[in-house]
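DOMAIN: structural biology
WANTED: fold as tokens
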Amino acid sequence: MDQTEQFLKSLTEAHGVPGYETEVRAVLRGFMEPLGEMSQDKLGSLICRQPGDGPRVMLVGHMDEIGFMVSQITKQGFIKFIQLGGWWDQVLLGHRVILKTRSGDLVGVIGAKPPHMLTPEARLKVVLKKDMYIDIGATSKKEVEAAGVRVGDPIVPYSEFTPLANGKSYLAKAFDNRIGCAVVIDALRHFQGNATPNQLFGVQTVMEEIGLRGATTSARAVKPDVAIILESDIAGDVPGITADESSVKLGAGPTVLMYDARMIPNIKLRDFVIDTAESAGIPVQFSLIPGGGTDGGAIHTFGTGVPAVVIGVPARHIHSHSSIIHRDDYDNAVKLVTAVVAKLDKVTVADFTN
């Protein structure tokens, strides 16, 4: 593995579901501490400041990944759960998970009533999460409790970072949104020791997947003049998606989000990003996500308003145990963000709201 692959492996394999980000926060802090002045808000979001004059530029990724929480232990020793973040029922059955208990990590598997015992009609129906359970191989509630499991324990998808056959694509859990966290860090690395016409804040937020909570508090701490949200985006190049629904393809460049359910980007900032990409020869794609949102939904309404835009790295199969990204998209996202930040001086940022 090269340095970037090892970096992405460290971030994606770290555990951190909403409200339980301690482990991934420690990993991120380790990468960020050499890059600037560190602080942390009271919800747990990390803020790395690189000093300078000019507008306050906020680069944002969210550290939390989707997961689960223990909600009940049955008499027979099976574990019921609730979701933390959005899960599609179809992607759950048969997958391994890790329960984070007071006694250590435990491996389990998500199960349900086997198809051999269902009617032909029932086999055609989607199994709902409420009818699923996690099996750790126990035979009683007492045995589960003796292993250290209790209601409220977080549960994380079990998945390893894996480079794929073409040498350019990577398979892992939590690219939503460790890939955004990685872009933030690589941008901070780029500008470390280099003068910029602004003050740069690299922020890793908590609890995005359950309501943009860390974005709300970290924006209050940073008080940004402009914000760039770094996210995973939804690749539309899989069977069943038409060109009318999405033209976003893996390997065709980072995306500029034109619309989502929580935010329309500042138009001047959006066009500034697109023009910067064109002048630098960086390929970009355009994306619309009417059924989702990002941390920008909270940040762009901070105070009297913050010009904000979302730059994404396309990913297949997000909100599952295993998603896929393309290295070229990641590298070009870093190039685009650093090219944009380098030009965000006082006059340019002021013009976004004139």
About this structure: The chain has a mean pLDDT of 96. The chain has two domains: 3-65+173-351, 67-157. The radius of gyration is 21 Å. Residues 12 and 174 are 5 Å apart (CA to CA).
